[in-house]
Automatic annotation (TrEMBL):
<dbReference type="InterPro" id="IPR051033">
    <property type="entry name" value="SH3BGR"/>
</dbReference>
<keyword id="KW-0007">Acetylation</keyword>
<keyword id="KW-0963">Cytoplasm</keyword>
<dbReference type="GO" id="GO:0005634">
    <property type="term" value="C:nucleus"/>
</dbReference>
<dbReference type="Pfam" id="PF04908">
    <property type="entry name" value="SH3BGR"/>
</dbReference>
<keyword id="KW-1003">Cell membrane</keyword>
<comment type="function">
    <text>Could act as a modulator of glutaredoxin biological activity. May play a role in cytoskeleton organization.</text>
</comment>
<comment type="similarity">
    <text>Belongs to the SH3BGR family.</text>
</comment>
<dbReference type="InterPro" id="IPR036249">
    <property type="entry name" value="Thioredoxin-like_sf"/>
</dbReference>
<keyword id="KW-0325">Glycoprotein</keyword>
<dbReference type="InterPro" id="IPR006993">
    <property type="entry name" value="Glut_rich_SH3-bd"/>
</dbReference>
<keyword id="KW-0539">Nucleus</keyword>
<protein>
    <recommendedName>
        <fullName>SH3 domain-binding glutamic acid-rich-like protein 3</fullName>
    </recommendedName>
</protein>
<dbReference type="GO" id="GO:0032587">
    <property type="term" value="C:ruffle membrane"/>
</dbReference>
<dbReference type="GO" id="GO:0005829">
    <property type="term" value="C:cytosol"/>
</dbReference>
<keyword id="KW-0472">Membrane</keyword>
<keyword id="KW-0966">Cell projection</keyword>
Length: 92
């Protein structure tokens, strides 16, 4: 497996829920397999996501290819619009 999506099942933010759902929907529509990592199960996973992304205040969704940071929702959305999702995910 390569692509990892850090997300949360516990959030009061509609924006975060919507962004996570859109990332998952687009990855599934492109038949890109990904692993979901739920940061709500423990602070260690949230800290891991923030450390790996290089952003101490990062919020889900955050996308990685293995341990290589790809970007956040805004960066993913720009790649979708430019039809460069595979490059964004570092798959090519």
């Amino acid at each position: 497996m390569g692509i990892k999506l850090y997300y949360t099942t516990v959030t009061a933010s509609r924006e975060v829920k919507s962004q996570q759902a859109e990332v998952m929907r687009i990855l599934e529509s492109k038949n890109i397999h990904f692993e979901l990592i739920d940061i709500s199960v423990g602070g260690a996973l949230r800290d891991e996501m923030r450390t790996k992304s290089g952003n101490p205040t990062a919020v889900p969704p955050q996308i990685f290819n293995e341990d290589q940071y790809c970007g956040n929702y805004e960066m993913f959305s720009e790649a979708v619009e430019a039809d460069t999702v595979e490059q964004f995910l570092k798959m090519v």
